[in-house]
Amino acid sequence: MLEVKALNAWYGESHILHGVDFRVDEGEVVTLLGRNGAGKTTTMKSIMGLVPRRQGSVRFRDRETVGLRSDLIARQGIAFCPEERGIFASLNVTENLLLPPVITDGGLDLPTIYTLFPNLKERSASQGTKLSGGEQQMLAIARILRTGARLLLLDEPTEGLAPVIVQQIGRTIREIKARGFTVLLVEQNFRFAATVADRHYVMEHGRVIDMIPNEQLAASMDKLHEYLGV
Q1: How far is CA 52 from CA 3, 5, 55, 149, in A?
Q2: Less Cβ crowding at N or C end of the chain, within 10 Å?
Q3: Maximum CA pair distance of the chain?
């Protein structure tokens, strides 16, 4: 579904990505692991066309997207859930959910979303400012499920959340995978990533340096600790 080759990205004079290569097949959950500053978030923003300058190839369903505006990339069927979540504080939960346009068929309707996220149903009339961090994260994920996008880019969805909420986010990711969505996930918490992902790419200094299938993760712990410094 997604193939990234020789992807380079810059912020001004700062060269952040140095030839990133990886692929995501349809129906997979794939994680980008790495220390802070490894280039994981910049990779996601580069896929979405949200960096000032990029070179290389990003193919979504065999269509080259480097050179397209970010809004046109989104309309191909890719949705980005940023780490800062982007909840509109003045809108309630339902209004936040209805805000993004539906770009194609296949998105989830509100009753289905509320079945997936019962907390949001209970808080449907609450303003964004009144939600907990976990509820805001659920809302940010739920909002892009409406659009019809089939590839979901989730940036640090468990950051700063209580363990019980992290478990709920994990159940949600497994459920949306079961519904046919494809997920690219940036994570610091590789123990959480192991509960949801098929494969893990390790990034360091703006490059992909390894790929670990999930079934080999336990046998690769020493190597992973070295990569991540944990």
Answers
A1: 21, 18, 11, 24
A2: C
A3: 48
Work out the end-to-end distance of the chain between its first and last CA atoms, rounded to an integer number of angstroms. Answer: 32
Q: Which two tokens stand for residue 7?
A: 């992807």
User: What residues does each domain of the chain span?
Assistant: 2-228
Q: Hey, is 21 helix, strand or coil?
A: strand
Structure tokens at 45: 């923003």
Q: Which residues, 6+ apart, have CB-to-CB distance to 97 below 8 Å? A: 110, 113, 120, 139, 142, 143, 146
Quote helix, strand, coil % in the chain, to nearest 5: 35, 30, 35
Token output for 130 = 């009144």
From first to last of its 230 residues, the chain has per-residue pLDDT tens of 999 999 999 999 999 999 999 999 999 999 999 999 999 999 999 999 999 999 999 999 999 999 999 999 999 999 999 888 889 889 999 999 999 889 888 889 999 999 999 989 999 999 988 888 889 999 999 999 999 999 999 999 998 888 988 998 999 999 999 999 999 999 888 889 999 999 999 999 999 999 999 999 888 988 888 888 76
Structural tokens at position 214:
């999930």
